[in-house]
Design a protein that fits this description.
InterPro entries: Rap1a (IPR041238). Residues 1-20 form the signal peptide. This protein is mostly helical. The protein is built from five helices and no strands. It has helices spanning 2-17, 25-32, 39-53, 70-82, 91-103. It is globular, with a radius of gyration of 14 Å. The N and C termini lie far apart (46 Å).
């Protein structure tokens, strides 16, 4: 388990230093359907976590512990499967689009 966690953290750090458009929806989808035991699936998990962590608009509020990410990942996987026409877009944009409906931050008006 520790090795998996370190791999995810390492990949997340790698992704944060790479260009956001490096991974498009097609590549992200192929990573998402890889068997859980393969590195590409771990890269998918790390990429999604990295996008959530670096959400520049601060419009995503994903408040789940790392061991409970399955529903979050399933939301992204389903979005990619159901929107094949969008797969040429940036992977990070697609992750935000996939999660925004279910995990958007509540609006708090400024006083």
């Amino acid at each position: 388990m520790r090795k998996i966690f370190l791999t995810i953290i390492s990949f997340t750090l790698f992704i944060s230093s790479a260009s956001a458009s490096y991974i498009d929806g097609n590549l992200l989808k192929s990573m998402s359907v890889a068997p859980v035991t393969e590195n590409s699936h771990l890269q998918f998990v790390g990429y999604v976590v990295g996008v959530i962590d670096s959400n520049e608009q601060d419009n995503l509020c994903v408040d789940v512990p790392p061991n409970a990410l399955t529903p979050v990942l399933d939301t992204v996987i389903n979005y990619l499967a159901n929107n094949p026409e969008k797969l040429n877009a940036s992977g990070s944009d697609l992750v935000v689009e996939a999660l925004i409906k279910q995990y958007s931050c509540p609006f708090t008006p400024k006083s």
